[in-house]
Amino acid sequence: MKALVLEDVSFSYNGRSILKEVSFDVEKGEFLVILGPNGAGKSTLLRCILGMLKCSGSIDIMGRNLKTLRRDELARLISYVPQRVEPNFLRVFDFVLLGRKPYMSLRPSNEDIKLVINVLETVGIEKLAERPTKMLSGGELQKVAIARALAQETPILVLDEPTNNLDPKSQIEIMRLLRELSLAGKTVIAVMHDVNLALRFGERFIFMKKGEILGDYRKNTIRKEVFEKTFDAKVELIETKHGPLCYFL
Ligand SMILES: Nc1ncnc2c1ncn2[C@@H]1O[C@H](COP(=O)(O)OP(=O)(O)OP(=O)(O)O)[C@@H](O)[C@H]1O
């Protein structure tokens, strides 16, 4: 069974076509990065996969058709880290605990509490546990959002620009974590703008432009032409021991 299957997914905003018959599938445990210029439709595609926008075509998630899934069922299959997370008065621990909502009755169980402690440690933010989310830096808040998604314990994790707001060391930590999660069997799908961070840690790359897929590559098959076509720029691709490095000229 595939983690995700999209067939002819199309979406329009007020008659303006944003996604045009997008089809691809994702294996379990894959680390897929979606690349493309501003306005290509990347976030819209994620929102369709998450059932937040009603598109035409079909989307299967872990073998179930999206249209047949109840909200709570979907929340146990797919978790989401949005581009921007609104901080609030909740302390980090309780904010992350919200990720357990699809499993909780009225109050959290000891298992829920243990899991949250674990997740905070995995993401390296256990020291922030008592801090209100309103009192965090952008990067800290991003890590908290990732922790909340991990607490949701879903087979698929979707992230919209997960390294935004993070300093270089935190960027590497998060990307390493995402890679480890995918190696452990979680399907990770991330929209990213930092091409080189994506190339270093991602495994498969889908290039999007004007609502269409221009290319779908594994790391070792990637060519500079697809970057040039996608981003309308001259590019030099350099092989390094960490994989290809892309210079925009
Ligand atoms: N609520 C909306 N109503 C109308 N048009 C929208 C809406 N949201 C997005 N769009 C348009 O849809 C197109 C695709 O937007 P989307 O956010 O999916 O692109 P993106 O590839 O994620 O871009 P970015 O890299 O800038 O985040 C854009 O032209 C955008 O202006």
TrEMBL record:
<dbReference type="InterPro" id="IPR003439">
    <property type="entry name" value="ABC_transporter-like_ATP-bd"/>
</dbReference>
<dbReference type="InterPro" id="IPR050153">
    <property type="entry name" value="Metal_Ion_Import_ABC"/>
</dbReference>
<dbReference type="GO" id="GO:0005524">
    <property type="term" value="F:ATP binding"/>
</dbReference>
<keyword id="KW-0547">Nucleotide-binding</keyword>
<feature type="domain" description="ABC transporter">
    <location>
        <begin position="4"/>
        <end position="235"/>
    </location>
</feature>
<dbReference type="InterPro" id="IPR003593">
    <property type="entry name" value="AAA+_ATPase"/>
</dbReference>
<dbReference type="InterPro" id="IPR017871">
    <property type="entry name" value="ABC_transporter-like_CS"/>
</dbReference>
<dbReference type="InterPro" id="IPR027417">
    <property type="entry name" value="P-loop_NTPase"/>
</dbReference>
<protein>
    <submittedName>
        <fullName>ABC transporter ATP-binding protein</fullName>
    </submittedName>
</protein>
<keyword id="KW-0813">Transport</keyword>
<keyword id="KW-0067">ATP-binding</keyword>
<dbReference type="Pfam" id="PF00005">
    <property type="entry name" value="ABC_tran"/>
</dbReference>
